[in-house]
Amino acid sequence: MAYDDLHAFVSRLEAAGELVRITTPVSPHLEITEIADRVSKGPAARNKALLFENVEGSSMPVLINAYGSARRMAWALGVDDLEDLHHNLAKLIDPRLPKGMRAMAGRGWDLLGALRSIGLGPKRVRQGKARCQQVINAHNPSLDTLPIPTCWPEDGGPYITLPQVITRDPATGQRNVGMYRLQKVDDRTLMMHWQRHKGGADHEREARAMKLPRIPVAVALGGDPAAMWCGSAPLPPGIDEYLLAGWLRGKPVPFVKCITQNLEVPADAEIVIEGYLDPNDQRPEGPFGDHTGFYTPQDTFPTMHVTCITHARNPIYPTTVVGKPPMEDYWMGKATERLFLPLMQLFMGEIVDVNMPAEGVFHNLVIVSMKPRFPGHPQKIMYGLWGLGLMMLAKGFVIVDEDVNVHDLDAVAEAVLQNVDWRRDATVVDGPVDQLDHSAIRDSYGGKIGVDATRKPDRKPPAPREPLDRAGLDRVPGLLAWNTVKDGVLIAAIDKTHLPPAEAYETLWALAPGYNLVLLDAGNDVHNLSDVAWRALGNVDWRRDILIQNGGIDHFATDDGRACIGIDATTKDARDGHPRGWPVEIEMSDAIKQLVDEKWAQYGID
């Protein structure tokens, strides 16, 4: 299903009871974030798209959390259920020959429909006639006219967070569309935060090598929600993201030429910011409260200079906010997961299903079910996925048998506890990690882990664990709180000045023999398992921060004793062998929390 514009999608959400219009005045400085954060993390009945119609400092309404549930995310991409994305693409790329005339005809119609959706060539709207160019300001464009939110208290400024950033390869002319945050510096200047692994950064490097002084850039906001989402899709280099959008929409994305730059943008966008990027104009960008749940520290990125702003007569400003999961971006990632599963299966047919849970913030954990046929088969899958596009950034894989539901985290945890000997079933490697990974020893490079949690027919079941010495645990100096999970994991909050991790392992294993250990900082909630998982996955370099009981990793060990793992998920500094700084966790200010408390009844959300 294709939407004519963002207004059409808003109308569908409202008709289905999936949108709340908020007419009370709100500030784009932190207030919108706090409201959206509560909606994202609150009861399912409260989780709605929010349209703020009275935003201080701007005449434009602000839309947020439009993708913030499985239902709304599916509708945005033209299906009724996210699982339809998997089935539709799997059917289209199925390498098996159809059997029978009816099946052959069905495949033919599917392929014809895909070709029609992509189009023989892009549909073009005459310049100045497109919806996104109903109002043109090329003489004195100002970002101050846009209600750009400041998301978190320590952010370096207001941020555009839901853009389609459009550039072309300076050498080949191929278009790239990316979803990169942009920090507003002043009314004519933005900072472009594209990470080194992304297509836009490749264009910057190419321009610098060619000694080009400028890269044309266009930032489209709004339009068909499928086209908006496609900027986040991890497509291979050289493949136009708008082709994927056309297939999802069922018809091609219409384009219009920019007013001041030699680029084309979606004609049905709400707002377009045109400009150029100077590869040699590098300035500090950040901090920014990121999807990792931490502030990304300030770093150097290229500058975008605005040359024109165009928009519809009645534009909606779309935005999102990221932070500690779960939030709206989780569902955007879930759509990616379901859509790209058939491509993983095309290269590795043993894969049955995949889950990237919210606690893993996309790149920290990928759970895979498969049909193992020989020793080392799970390791083949790990290495295969690490070599597949941006899956190279995955920090951890857990591989389970095909009958384990990867979306049932209790079932996955049970498989790990029953089937994993950490000395034999863990594969630790060094390689590229996400540039936002603060726990990596080096920028964008660190230790990663693959865990084979499949059943081993030739291995005896684990021996019963000895009972915990609960009284002894309560008397350990520096052990501030502890909790056990499934009688196999001991979560411990420690005061590292009195109980360093090395000493904690020795002490706790003496009192909890056979238990896997997770160490947290003092003050962390050992009973909030989602928070524990988020910290354990995000705060660990898997080369440095684990200890295998009974020796190191040995895939050829033959004894029947199961080795356990200790995971140090505490904050690190130079004393822990971490030479880089450690970021601050995201937290809203008390003043904004109180403001939203006092105004909550006015918003009309409950």
Structure described in brief:
The protein is α+β, with helices and mostly antiparallel strands and 606 residues long. Strands 5, 6, 7, 8, 9, 10, 11, 14 and 17 form a nine-stranded antiparallel beta sheet that branches. Strands 19-20-21-23-22 form a five-stranded mixed beta sheet, sandwiched between helices. The longest helix is centred in the middle third of the chain and has 20 residues, at 328-347.
Describe the protein:
It contains 15 helices and 28 strands. It is an alpha+beta fold and 606 residues long. The strands form six sheets. Strands 5, 6, 7, 8, 9, 10, 11, 14 and 17 form a nine-stranded antiparallel β-sheet that branches. Strands 19-20-21-23-22 form a five-stranded mixed β-sheet, with helices on both faces. Strands 24-25-26-28-27 form a five-stranded mixed β-sheet, with helices on both faces. Strand 25 (489-494), helix 13 and strand 26 form a beta-alpha-beta unit. Helix 5 crosses helix 8. The protein is globular and about 75 Å long. Mean pLDDT is 91; it is low at 103-112.
What labels describe this entry?
606 residues, alpha+beta, five-stranded mixed β-sheet, 15 helices
Structural class: alpha+beta
Can you tell me the residue ranges where pLDDT is under 50 for at least 5 consecutive residues? 103-112
Radius of gyration: 25 Å
| Percent of residues in beta strands | 15-25%
Task: Give a short account of the largest sheet.
Answer: 9 strands, antiparallel
